[in-house]
Specification:
single chain, about 325 residues
């Protein structure tokens, strides 16, 4: 499969739904060349300069997707179920390998970039991405975080500037994404709903970046930040029996205060809270995608006591695991054993 992304000048932009004449031309053009003719991604034009891509379908096999980005949009990408491994070539001979786990989002601007993504689905591919023409993005959001301001300075003369920010998304973002995936509307009402939710998701991400900017600063080295990321991956792979903060610090070669500070710097919260959010996100996924009992779900995310798990889950999502399980329509095509 090949995904091509480009910003094209639109001759008849007024033909697009919702056009008011406010935004400058610049169509976000995203195409998918699917080998077997089976559509995995829904490509939605929100308005001129804004495109939404939705993936919400059962897929039992791993996918390989090559991507080519020319004139890049500002992209907000959210994965709810899939584990993605990227190999990226920015056009100057430098290759980089990155991974994105379920429950993580990426804000990026990557002009003249090529690469490949290997997607490992968890019974179902669930994801949302929103892509903005830079001009349109700048029109919509006046207060831009410092890390993005360079994108709007001399745009057109500095097309090789790049930005990539990856983080866990919070429960508020999770619920907005679920609303997008479960949209009950059709026609123009559906488009307006998607537009509102797109702006809400961007506002939540910009608020996160604003908080990050105002956090207490310290002289953390690149190695300290790398240790925080390493510790984060250790926690994700040991949700059922995570190491203590002291043991985790020793595993990555730092002390617990510096590690916690690194977590706040990279993920916006303490190691304990990041672990709790990851556990609850995993628990929701298990409730939704498996027929495990509530006790089994609790144990798989590190709770030996189901009552304590229920309390933590309700505190995170505002509803009990039993309520979530009852409200979920299970996949009518169970995985092959």
């Amino acid at each position: 499969m090949i995904r091509r992304i480009n910003i094209k000048e639109a001759d008849k932009i007024s033909m697009y739904p919702g056009y008011s004449g406010k935004y400058p031309p610049g169509e976000v053009d995203i195409t998918h060349n699917e080998e077997n003719g089976e559509s995995i991604f829904e490509n939605i034009t929100i308005r001129p300069g804004i495109k939404m891509i939705i993936a919400n379908r059962v897929c039992r096999k791993n996918l390989q997707m090559d991507f080519e980005i020319y004139n890049a949009p500002v992209s907000f990408c959210y994965g709810l179920s899939q584990h993605i491994r990227y190999t990226v070539n920015n056009g100057f001979g430098r290759k980089k390998v990155m991974e994105r786990l379920p429950g993580e989002s990426v804000l990026s601007y990557l002009p003249k970039t090529m690469g490949a993504a290997r997607i490992t689905p968890d019974r179902k591919i669930e994801g949302v991405s929103i892509h903005f023409n830079v001009h349109t993005f700048n029109e919509l959001f006046g207060e831009i975080p410092g890390c993005l301001k360079d994108l709007f300075t001399g745009y057109g003369d500095s097309g090789n500037k790049r930005f990539y920010y990856q983080s866990r998304f919070n429960s508020e973002t999770f619920f907005v994404l679920k609303q997008v995936l479960e949209c009950p509307y059709k026609g123009e009402t559906r488009r307006l709903f998607y537009e509102a939710k797109s702006l809400e998701l961007v506002a939540l991400k910009l608020a996160e970046l604003g908080q990050k900017k105002h956090m207490e600063s310290s002289e953390l080295s690149c190695k300290d930040l790398a240790r925080a990321r390493e510790a984060y991956n250790i926690l994700l792979t040991n949700l059922d029996h995570p190491p203590s903060l002291i043991d985790l610090s020793r595993l990555v070669g730092t002390n617990r205060n510096k590690l916690n500070h690194g977590f706040k710097k990279v993920y916006g919260d303490t190691a304990f809270n990041v672990l709790r959010h990851a556990r609850m996100s995993r628990a929701w996924s298990l409730l939704e995608k498996t027929d495990m009992s509530l006790a089994e779900v609790a144990f798989s995310v590190g709770y030996n006591n189901q009552a304590n798990f229920t309390t933590a889950f309700r505190r995170q999502f505002g509803k009990t695991p039993k309520t979530v399980r009852r409200s979920i329509a299970f996949d009518p095509f169970p995985p092959k054993i």
